[in-house]
Amino acid sequence: MHHSLPLLQADCENCFALCCVALPFAKSTDFAVNKPAGTPCQNLRQDFRCGIHTRLRDQGFQGCTVFDCFGAGQQVSQVTFGGRDWRTHPASRAEMFDVFPVMRRLHELLFYVDQALGLPDAAQVHPELRRLLAETEQWTRADAAALAALDVAELRGRINTLLLKTSELVRAKVPGRRKNHRGADLMGARLSGADLRGANLRGAYLIAADLSRADLRTADLIGADLRGANLRGADLRGAVFLTQPQLNAAQGDPATRIPQPLTRPTHWT
Q: For residues 260 and 165, what is the distance between their CA atoms, to the nearest angstrom?
């Protein structure tokens, strides 16, 4: 990871449980209850820890186990608000909860840009990526008012143009015809053992798809929905723009090969 970047993974010890308060959730297979934005979850304790952390899946809060803020929580808690928590300083509450989703989007963009900068095949777009990395990183240190007013969609649009170019450059190295499933509905699709090297799976719906033993090396998985997807024995080495939350939402096993620096989810069998 680029040395000046903030930590791009959650450090819950240094966060005021912002994902448990700021964000809404709807009663579903992911959450046992409805919770409006800005309201603390019923399981949140006074010390900002989860009362059922080790039993989240059993208690119907699977959604919490797959969420990752990309380090936005501690950035807002410790940098933007200088360590002042919303319980002790209730006046900052609304502003803090508004800023958190903005910071999460910024940190996710930093994650993607940082990953693109680690791909030698995309060297021709690296200078422009570095400029946007510096600009985005500067925004993560802005004050709450500036962050609340930031047009993240505009920034994301500029970055996405370069991420698309990065993807094309990387996948162009894969021989043969590369499959294009961009935004495709592949829910429950039977793709066991499929050769998806260099495939474009940007934004594809792969919910509950069978990707066991599939070859996904250098496939572009940005924004792909992998909830409940079977990745047992799949090869994801070099997969482009794969995130930890995507892995956390899927099913895998010890034979699943995953790229650095991502980690094997604890619930995988």
A: 22
